[in-house]
């Protein structure tokens, strides 16, 4: 049976592009998609710039009524107070932010974020009506040992600990095998399906078939316009979290238009 989940293409810019460059890229992206008579109802397109760009992106999106959404790359687990350098979910919500990436592998690796902290950030985001894009995925050693499914599902369990079925249903999960991020190595479509399908199965166990059916599971890891269609052809892949390739408006627009590509090209 065909699913009713709207595909989501989210571009994680990481620590690239200042607010002037952000405005330029979002304008070009919206113009490119509009120019091609892209049906925004067929795919949701979201940019995820650095915090310092969010106000400029908000102003542009509001003023020009662009159909591009925007999200943050992280969110604090705390609501306010003496947490120098952190940004709360409420602050993001005031900027019209609708998504926050949580538990990206770079934050897990470089900032020692563990499953408990990721879970607290998921709660903070949902509490401010921000949809968390929860990143999970194994490193190379775990993949070589064949333990990718159990490892990733343990991260899913941690992220959803204490989350209600209603909140779970509006969350997004991004399966990102760490060995495929920024390396040019792409998991095969079958690799992506194996883990994305297992994630959906776990949501059915933790909650219900309805919740599992509602949650969008993205794939991330060196997605480009040349490989997106074959990954998106897999039953349990509902979109992509795109890093490097989202920094070029035309390339990211081509990824968003994957439905017009021929699978395998
Ligand atoms: C990412 O940063 O989440 C990512 C998938 O990066 P890239 O597309 O560059 O591999």
Order of helices and strands: EHEHEHEHHEHHHEHHEHEH
Identify low-pLDDT runs.
none
How many strand units? 8
Radius of gyration: 17 Å
Secondary-structure-based class equals: alpha/beta
The major pleated sheet works out as: 8 strands, parallel, barrel
Structure in words:
By secondary structure, the protein is an alpha/beta fold. Helix content is 42%, strand content 14%. It is built from 12 helices and 8 strands. Strands 1-2-3-4-5-6-7-8 form an 8-stranded parallel β-barrel, surrounded by 5 helices. Strand 1, helix 1 (19-35) and strand 2 form a beta-alpha-beta unit. It is globular and about 45 Å long. It starts with 7 loop residues before the first strand and ends in a 9-residue tail after the last helix. The mean pLDDT is 95. Bound molecules: phosphoenolpyruvate. Phosphoenolpyruvate (PEP) binds next to strand 8.
